[in-house]
Amino acid sequence: MKIENRKHIDKPEPKPVLADVAEARGIEFKAWDKKEQRLFDVYGLGVDFVTENTFDGVDEGVNCFSGDEFKERIVIMQFTGFLDKNGNKIFEGFNLGDWTKTDEGLKQSKQQVFWKDGAWRIDFSANQDKSWYDYLKNDLEDFDYEIVGHIYECKV
Fold this sequence. Notes:
InterPro entries: YopX-like_C, YopX_protein
Number of helices: 3
Radius of gyration: 17 Å
Protein name: YopX protein domain-containing protein
Helix content: 10-25%
Distance between the termini: 18 Å
Pfam families: YopX
Structural class: mainly beta
C-alpha cells in the first residue's frame, strides 16, 4: 500500500488547539472500568479510590471504587488540555485519527495519546508501541485530528 506524504491542511481560520486557559489549568479525569467496559467522568479521586460524577449518590462497587477493586478494575485517564478538531477534550489513552490519501483511497489513521518525558505525545508507530512519536501540540496545530476511540475499548 503506497501512502502519499502527509501534507499540511490549508485552513481559512486557526482552530482552537488548547482549551481556554482556565479550563486547561484545571485537572480533569475520566476512568475506564475494565469489568463493565465503560468510560465515566471522575468526580472524586484519591490515592486508593475513585468516584463517578453522577447524580445518583455514592454506591460502593457501582459508582465508587476503592482498595483492591480500584487497583484491579479502574484505569485513570487525565485531560491533556488539548481539543480535537471538533472541540472535544482529548484525554490520555484516547485514539486520534485523520485521513490520508493512499493508492487504495482515503484511510483513517489511528494514533494513541500518551505522556512521556514531561509532555503529551502522539504515537505514530505502526504497532502503537510508542517507538515513534511527536509532541501532541505540534500535530494538533498542523493536522485535523478527531477522537476515534480509546485504547481500552478498541485495541489498535
